[in-house]
Design a protein that fits this description.
alpha/beta, 44% helix, binds phosphoenolpyruvate
């Protein structure tokens, strides 16, 4: 049984005060223990968050980490550095970085590999643009992005990877993929992982991301291969994030009973 994971991507939002207030809200209403909860603040707030949520079962991640251990990369941050600040997770290949920072499939694969080497758990983001979906190439794009990472990782690492399917047209747009659209892609991803991992592919968590809200989360989490969510906008309010966590906990209970 895969434990659901709900990850909040704060993107370039927040402040030290915001971090402390968010942590206070979580302390007053701790998330359901059936769900792994992970927060991804801007990297400058990772340490503040680590201190603020001490004693709570909240994972901490970076939104990005470089593929090199150190060197002449002005403005960049190495995986071991974010680990040093208290992060144990990192995103790799968010579509905003693929599109805005020129991150290629190969570079994203390098970042996943470097994250594992530094003791971080990467969540690789994959997903097609609207033009790619309309051209009928959504599946090919997602598999290409996934294959690049799978080719770069050792089997033991691949089994520890978390995948986030995030259709680009659904991110920050309020236009969520339907549960059926998301499940179709998640099933495809799991099938591809099974080609390398066999039955172990059943243990890999595949998150959905793209305008997830407390209102649509339950329907998404009811699908077989949707193991949680990568949440942007709705993760900036603790009460909304906690409602999404509660929906994941409920879906997990239903799965266990069936
Ligand atoms: C994201 O930032 O990865 C994301 C899915 O954002 P939103 O939930 O706002 O669409």
């Amino acid at each position: 049984m895969r434990k659901p994971l709900v990850a909040g991507n704060w993107k370039m939002h927040g402040s030290r005060t915001f971090v402390r207030e968010f942590a206070d809200a979580l302390r007053q209403a701790p998330p359901a223990p059936e769900v792994d909860v992970l927060l991804l603040p801007p990297v400058c707030y990772v340490q503040e968050l680590a201190v603020s949520v001490a004693g709570l079962d909240i994972g901490i991640g970076a939104q990005n980490a470089h593929w090199q251990e150190s060197g002449a990369f002005t403005g960049e941050v190495a995986p071991a550095m974010v680990r040093d600040l208290g992060a144990t997770w990192t995103l790799a290949g968010h579509s905003e970085r693929r599109a805005g920072c020129g991150e290629t499939d190969e570079l994203v694969a390098d970042k996943c590999s470097a994250a594992f080497a530094a003791g971080l758990r990467p969540i690789v983001c994959v997903g097609e643009t609207l033009a790619e979906r309309e051209a009928g190439s959504a599946e090919a794009v997602v598999l290409r992005q996934l294959d690049a990472v799978a080719a770069r990782l050792a089997a033991g690492e691949l089994a520890q990877l978390t995948v986030a399917y995030e259709p680009v047209w659904a991110i920050g747009t309020g236009r969520t993929a339907t549960p059926a659209q998301a499940q179709a892609m998640h099933g495809l991803v799991r099938g591809r992982l099974a080609e390398s991992l066999g039955a172990q592919a059943e243990t890999v968590r595949i998150l959905y991301g793209g305008s997830v809200t407390p209102e649509n989360a339950a329907a998404l989490f009811a699908e077989r291969d949707i193991d949680g969510a990568l949440v942007g906008g709705a993760s900036l309010a603790a009460d909304r994030l906690l409602k999404i966590v509660a929906a994941a906990a409920e879906a997990s209970r239903v799965r266990r009973e069936n």
